């Protein structure tokens, strides 16, 4: 206990000293500016008009150089493989799959080997995804609002060739997909736009966008679906009953009223990133603790990448999607819209030094 207490006190002293030195040198104060990431680099722009409202982003380790993205609600059930230049490599559709409101994408385990792609059909702006019929102006008739769900399938091999023209990119079908239905513990609907799966455990974390009623600090709920629950649901075709495990703050300086819109975990399960429209929040897992434990103990992220990080967060960088690279050294962000840029951010040495101190 004395050793742990000493480490905590020493770490706190180190943080204060680091902040004093940076201010004294006229440098940005850590946690409030760009101390943790280098200036963003534009790697390219989306070259296909079909990519009109990017809502989810992940970076492949089985297909080097490939980013997977998908559109928000209103599109059909499909995902796109692109490179960091924004060039469309291939489109993959899921025949027969529903696409009520696809909001997020993640890698995770599956019944086979290798990475599986999970799509989060979890958005619910109207808070009416309760399995009942509701009148919608979009289709001008009653529509059964399906419960939220994951769609998952084995990550396919992506062609290496880059088509010279987006319409020439291969269009392929994923027929071996499955739907895993989700239910919240209180049977109430929630608008969720961010989830990620820990590839080291198979557990899924869902970050709800509508915050806790009456909470002036704007904390958002975090729900858990364990790997065991997901596999039982897959085998029995029964819903996963989510569990509320934490409440975290994912809105600090943003001028937008939204909470979490995207999340991603590093391949080794150590780094968690949660994004709202304008900010990014970063947590680091300690030792063998679960992410549920870490978030309960630390509702405020130790690393905050705020609006003041640069113009790429205030205008070009506004958006819903974020994805870590396989080596965790950098990450991509992208906003909604046609032919929008892709931004790549790299963590600074200061970030890795502080992360080492946390561990």
Describe the structure.
Mean pLDDT is 85; it is low at 1-33 and 310-314. The radius of gyration is 20 Å and the shape is globular. The chain is of the alpha+beta class and 359 residues long. Strand 13 (192-197) and strand 14 form a beta hairpin. It has helices at residues 2-24, 227-236, 291-297, 311-314, 349-358, and strands at 41-45, 54-59, 66-71, 78-83, 88-93, 102-108, 116-121, 133-136, 141-144, 149-154, 171-173, 178-183, 192-197, 204-208, 219-225, 240-241, 243-249, 262-265, 271-275, 280-284, 303-305, 321-324, 330-334, 341-346. It has two domains: 1-30; 31-349, Neuraminidase. A five-stranded mixed sheet has the order 2-3-4-5-11, with no helix packed on it. Strands 6-7-10-12-16 form a five-stranded mixed sheet. The protein has a four-stranded antiparallel sheet with strand order 1-24-23-22, with no helix packed on it. The protein is built from five helices and 24 strands.
The CATH C-level class name of the largest domain: Mainly Beta
In this structure, how is the largest beta sheet organized?
5 strands, mixed
What structural class should be given to the helix and strand makeup?
alpha+beta
Number of strands: 24
What proportion of the residues form beta strands (DSSP E)? Answer: 25-35%
Mean pLDDT: 85
